[in-house]
TrEMBL record:
<dbReference type="Pfam" id="PF19335">
    <property type="entry name" value="HMBD"/>
</dbReference>
<dbReference type="InterPro" id="IPR002818">
    <property type="entry name" value="DJ-1/PfpI"/>
</dbReference>
<dbReference type="InterPro" id="IPR029062">
    <property type="entry name" value="Class_I_gatase-like"/>
</dbReference>
<dbReference type="InterPro" id="IPR052158">
    <property type="entry name" value="INH-QAR"/>
</dbReference>
<keyword id="KW-0732">Signal</keyword>
<feature type="domain" description="DJ-1/PfpI">
    <location>
        <begin position="74"/>
        <end position="234"/>
    </location>
</feature>
<feature type="domain" description="Heavy metal binding">
    <location>
        <begin position="29"/>
        <end position="58"/>
    </location>
</feature>
<protein>
    <submittedName>
        <fullName>DJ-1/PfpI family protein</fullName>
    </submittedName>
</protein>
<feature type="signal peptide">
    <location>
        <begin position="1"/>
        <end position="18"/>
    </location>
</feature>
<dbReference type="InterPro" id="IPR045800">
    <property type="entry name" value="HMBD"/>
</dbReference>
<dbReference type="GO" id="GO:0006355">
    <property type="term" value="P:regulation of DNA-templated transcription"/>
</dbReference>
<dbReference type="Pfam" id="PF01965">
    <property type="entry name" value="DJ-1_PfpI"/>
</dbReference>
Length: 267
């Protein structure tokens, strides 16, 4: 009798396993969500996306549908007149190809000029910009670009924003808004002393690519913004998503957690 019961339990277990096994017809290969037309493409074999070049991932159609239906995280790029091109362009590539929705905001909707070269028309002004999960600021003309109305706008976004992200001297905007108080931060290497003097309640570090305080990430200058953005993507969507974005960008300089992650440092 005992042998018969064991046999029946084994049959039930095998039957359950067979029922949960995914039918190959329900599987396909897809491009990682990158807010491009290729998000809608379906591939029948592994490889790279013919549209954007990213490595394909295998998913069930149901999982893909659920992923597509999820509202992407939003990133607000505040851009001031004179903003450094690579400060924002590098992170914009990272967040965009990692499936985040990025939009630009400036003090007004008037065109701004980056480094005297690139003309940019902001999507919104500080008067009508929607809330975002991530608020990002960047260097270039920081002494004039972050005036009282802009700082007041940043302060007004504190409760609705999950993460604050700055590149280069964009950290000065957060300092003026009081977000660096009792926090550890970094900035452009020639502005380390200036940031520390301006905001003595902060601890400003040099020789570090980025500093992660939890919901506040500041990076060193210019190209370091790419590292910080990849770190934030890894933090929010997993290291695989960040590696896929870095691979697509052919950015082989990124080393996960190369910066200072304070939550890790306290362990």
């Amino acid at each position: 009798m005992k042998t018969l019961l064991l046999f029946l339990f084994a049959c039930l277990a095998l039957s359950a396993g067979a029922q949960t096994k995914t039918n190959p017809k329900d599987m396909a290969y897809f491009c990682p969500l990158c807010n491009s037309d290729c998000d809608k493409l379906v591939f029948d074999k592994p490889g790279t996306c013919s549209h954007c070049g990213m490595a394909l991932v295998q998913q069930t159609f149901a999982d893909r549908k659920a992923e597509v239906s999820q509202k992407p995280m939003t990133v607000c790029f505040y851009l001031q007149d004179g903003v450094e091109v690579l400060d924002f362009a590098g992170p914009m590539e990272v967040f965009s190809y990692a499936g985040f929705h990025v939009f630009t905001v400036s003090k007004t909707k008037d065109p701004i000029v980056s480094q005297g070269i690139l003309k940019i028309i902001p999507d919104y002004s500080i008067q009508d910009a929607p809330p975002a999960d991530i608020l990002a600021t960047f260097g270039g003309n920081a002494s004039q670009g972050f005036d009282e109305p802009v700082v007041a706008w940043i302060k007004s976004r504190e409760k609705a924003t999950s993460y604050f992200f700055s590149v280069c001297t964009g950290a000065f905007a957060f300092g003026k808004a009081g977000l660096l108080d009792n926090k550890t931060a970094t900035t452009f290497h020639l502005s380390i002393e200036g940031l520390q003097k301006s905001f003595p309640k902060a601890k400003v570090l040099s020789d570090v690519r980025f500093v992660d305080n939890g919901n506040l990430i500041t990076t060193a200058g210019i190209s370091a913004g790419i590292d910080g953005a990849l770190h934030l993507v890894a933090k929010l969507k997993g290291e695989a998503a960040a590696k896929a974005a870095a691979q697509y960008m052919e950015y082989d300089k990124w080393i996960p957690k190369e910066g200072l992650v304070l939550s890790d440092a306290k362990k």
